[in-house]
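dude i think i finally got it to work??
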Amino acid sequence: MNEPIVIVGAGLSGLRAASLLYSQGINCNVLEARGRIGGRILSEMALDRPDLGKFDLGPTWFWPQHEPIISHLVNELGLQTFEQHTNGALLLEQSLNEPIQRHVLPEEAVEKSVRLVGGVQSLIDAIADSLPPSTVKLNTCVTAIQMNDHGTTTVEAVLGDGKKKTIRAKAVILALPPRIVAQRITFSPSLPTEFMASLVDKPTWMAGQAKVVAIYNSPFWRDDGLSGQVMSWGGPLQKIHDASPSTGYGALFGFFGIPAKIRQEMGEEKILKLVVDQLTRLFGPSAEKPISLLYKDWSSDHETAVEDDLNPLTKFPKYGQSTITGVWEKNIIFTGTETSFEHGGHLEGALQSAERAVSEVIELL
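look at this
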């Protein structure tokens, strides 16, 4: 049969699965609902200032000493890395009414991580460049997957212009957050009830979060003996890290302690003002006027989050592969960081799950 393997989702898992399939001579198509590749990986430039570099509004770093798959791939693709800056004191803000504390952590307390020159998007672009032209179809939103009485699988999608498209597939790799699959794609015949419940039960990693990057002319906090790391209960940012690129400019990024629903009610303008006020409070007047502010609220991203993801997590999600049985057992394969038991939530988990999915496809063929 000449039908391709259809991969739904052009994030890290989907693109890596496609590159591995093509390396084995297996034809595939990648369908992506967004108008860009990368999924939750997003490296952006400040408006009209490409000289500042790119800044990650999604995942930022990885740990080579613990994550061999991404380390090997980065080396194989010839991508440049640099060590995440952690030298210096950490700031601790327990409340707005208490003095800000400085703590110098023991050297072994902070595990060294590395970042990619040009942001994590450079990894996405390098993998995409290894694929034949027209492999990835953007603005192609999969709405239904059907199997007929003869076992033939078809994928239905809506294109950016509203037209519908049907593609026959040998098998389908779903490289999407499990909750997106459960709520946005119709299956005929239906997936088992227990299996659907397992998809809904897996929170999408970082879907309820937002990230902000404040860019400066230099990482001035380092001159004050600070690492850029902050733990704050004063808010709005709960965790802050040095996000300075390899270009010489400075940057700080932070994650919010404000729940998603409240952020959406407040609006971006008010949130960014609170961010600058907090950075000025923590790092002094030099932080008062950033060159640029980049902001991404993933909870408002339709291709990432569903309503359930707006509820704050109370513990780290339990990730791993859900086992599907019945007629779909050999025709649908799930991948993505949420399907990785060991590295769920990490870039390593996304890549590990892609390797597993491709192994399953090869076994099927």
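The two ends are 10 Å apart (CA to CA).
im so relieved honestly
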